[in-house]
Design brief:
Blueprint (H helix, E strand, L loop, with lengths): L1 H17 L6 H14 L21 H17 L14 H4 L12
Length: about 110
């Protein structure tokens, strides 16, 4: 989990940093950098929350619930009105559109 968080945080931070369409770029970069400075476990940024709360996804229903939870996070945070409007989400792919990254649908 540590390696996944480390890799994805760097990749996502670079996407945000290099995307000229992202209107909240300065705010998101500042947020990641500020959180990173407050935590001595980080070298530069903190993208993910600390901790690991693994949940076994043993049924399709549980998998669908967790995926819906992930897709709803930007909506609950007030960043977008619909999950598929958030450019950094896989929700657009599940809605039939094209996302920034290729994913394997589950």
């Amino acid at each position: 989990m540590r390696d996944l968080k480390k890799y994805t945080s760097r990749q996502l931070y670079q996407l945000i940093e290099n995307d000229p369409r992202e209107s909240r770029k300065s705010w998101m970069m500042w947020l990641c950098q500020s959180d990173g400075k407050r935590n001595s476990n980080n070298e530069f940024i903190q993208f993910w929350q600390q901790g690991n709360h693994a949940v076994e996804l043993s049924t399709n229903n549980m998998l669908d619930q967790r995926l819906d939870y992930l897709h709803q996070n930007p909506v609950k945070a007030g960043l977008v009105y619909e999950p598929h409007h958030y450019v950094y989400s896989s929700a657009i792919i599940y809605a039939g559109g094209q996302g920034l990254l290729d994913i394997e649908m589950i």
